[in-house]
Amino acid sequence: MNVSDLGEFGLIERLRAALPAVAPDRLVIGIGDDAAVWRRDAGCTIATTDTMVAGVHFLPGAVEWRDIGWKALATNISDIAAMGGMPAFALVTLCLPPETPVDAVDALYTGLRECADDYGVTIAGGDIVSAPVFAITIALIGEAKMSGHREPLLLRRDAARDGDLIAVTGALGGSVGGLRALKEGEPRTGALRRLIERHMRPQPRTDAGRAAIAAGIRCAIDISDGLVQDLGHICSASGVGAELRLDRVPLDADLVATYRDDASMMAAAGGEDYELLLVGAEDAIARASAALPVPLTVVGSIVAGGVRVRVLDAEGHDVPMMTSGWDHLQGHGSP
Prior knowledge:
Blueprint: H1 3-18, E1 27-29, E2 36-40, E3 43-53, H2 65-82, E4 86-96, H3 102-119, E5 122-130, E6 135-143, E7 165-169, H4 174-184, H5 190-200, H6 206-214, E8 219-222, H7 227-238, E9 241-245, H8 253-258, H9 263-269, E10 276-280, H10 282-291, E11 296-303, E12 309-312
Parallel strand pairs: 4-5, 9-12
Antiparallel strand pairs: 1-2, 2-3, 3-6, 4-6, 7-10, 7-11, 8-10, 9-11
Helix pairs in contact: 2-3, 2-6, 4-5, 6-10
């Protein structure tokens, strides 16, 4: 059996089972969420890590090194945002073929610095190794707010309950539209240029994550693998099902203008939008909608009776999905 037979998420479960079943008391959230969380004497730490590999996460030669640097850090910041925390310190590991131009590394770090400056992150160190293909790994440390009882205030995947509403920030599908434009070699003008920018320069929703916590929401995930698949992660962690209304999913305007016929499916399965998917009671969603710095759209509801996501059309009929999102090891999905 190969890892491709298990798939990315099957392998994660296998690795989880290989580790000790009992975790230290100070570990609040371990394997299976957007980030790990543990207690400190004076607060609570959030930690995440992510890797970008040439030819897997971006198309070499088709995108700017500066944008690769931005996206490498932004994807990690989005994981912290999905927990309702604030990013603080990053460690960067570069895997570099010896023939990598120094100018490329300079541009990469320009993008890293731009993202770090925008989100208040300090790049505190890292490592450099020789490798046959370029890759960048970032480990990001952040912090969670604490309640008056010294409990961490977090957004988690396992907090969805029957009757909760499902909502998403912003508009979806722009990133996969940009990826499609890159693959098809379309001229980078107008709507296509903006789609490519959304693919390579995502804007993590740290403010929205904190506003959601203040509104009383406790369940969330960032949309990285695709709306349907990421909603499925919440269902699995919470032991619930979900009904997603495809006609209510907010679509990126440039995606609709460019790929109208495919826009809804691309938004549902495309991934890498790095918007937040929030799940909570109706009153909490309403409070969040009034407070969030970006639009919040209700797209479905949590239901009991089976851990699966039903995708429905405007008439309530099931919509078949050719793919629900991205799996690194099985090689299907949007990237």
